[in-house]
Amino acid sequence: MSSESAQGALEALDAVKHRVDKDTTVCLMTEGLGVLDDVRQKIFAVPEKEPTFLLGSMSSKFVFNRNFDSVRQLRHGVWNITSVQRSAVMSTTEQPKIETQTNFVRSLQAAKLLHTEYTPFDSWFRYKLPGVIFDSAVEPVCLLLDVPYAGLLQNASARKLISSLLEEIVSVLRLMPEVGRGETLHELLDVDRAKKALYRRILHHRSRESRLVRDIRLGHPVNVDYLNGYFLRRAHALGVKVPTNKMMWDLVKAKNAIQAQERESYIRIEETSVTPEMEDQHTSTSSY
Question: Does the predicted TM-score (pTM) go above 0.85?
């Protein structure tokens, strides 16, 4: 299963849950973090009956060509896949799933175009985290101040907000057990280095419109619950205060709701061709 929208993935799984059992393998490919937690809590609450879950993250870019009913690759990359057990100690019911995961990954690796790699969770998390941090610390600032990527670094208020968001996120990451176990993640916990990485990414995207601003304007689903919302939940569990992230989470929710209300207020007009009979009727009516 592949879905950029976390909500889309949840809805899709909920629609087919009656066809999913412990012999099924589900690969979640969504933006943000914490989607699997919600899937397990809301859809597959019984551990013994849940499918095998894999987490995926793809740097390749594909588009669907409707004219030729085919898929075209726009950017080459890799598809990183990892697995996450419910607990650190694997139960006897989880042992058979290892073979299922292996077979699934081998099938994907047979498709050379996908460049599929199975990685430990630490490596996958290290690969995934920079994008999540960018979407949590930069995108909401673009929305709040109504500035494009190019205007962020010249705006002192924007830089201050980005720094505040980043510092709160790092304070949460430092206490997360999965980060503590991963030596490769420690470089992300240096605020100065993480800030420089964010600024480099902003410069790389400076000619583009903020994706969050565009998604809200176009009515696309937003994943704030699995970006700033993810760090809010983890912070609450760890006893950490993250007021700036809470403010940004509220802001994105409010902006999205306002935009949705505006779209609902539009009067939909269906364009149609005027037939000669309709034109004659209009002419005769107007003559009175």
Answer: no
